[in-house]
Amino acid sequence: MADKQLFVTSLSDLGDGEVKQVIVRNMCLAAYRVGEAVYVTSGVCTHGHALMADGYLDGYEIECPLHQGRFDIRTGVPMCAPVTVALESFPVEVVDGNVYLQALDGAAVERQAENVAT
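Request: output the structure for the sequence above.
Response:
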């Protein structure tokens, strides 16, 4: 594990088929688990400012709880209207049962911090 990785959650706190809101360095993120795979995206919908952790996870798609737009959790890509702007997705690594986020550049931290503030 690289020194610049950031702890997100433990696998024991993220069951298969679950989504969890996490705050990392003042960023609102959503962590998802599908089988043994774990994904992390920005935690706020790009369309309606709803928390993705309050949405419905179906396979690799998360449905926004506000307007039912769906995103692919692997890439953040919008899958249907009304969403048109992708969620930011982040690379993760699982080490010893813990999920770590790769270090973020300053622009990513700033973008995500705005989601927490608004």
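The chain has a mean pLDDT of 90.
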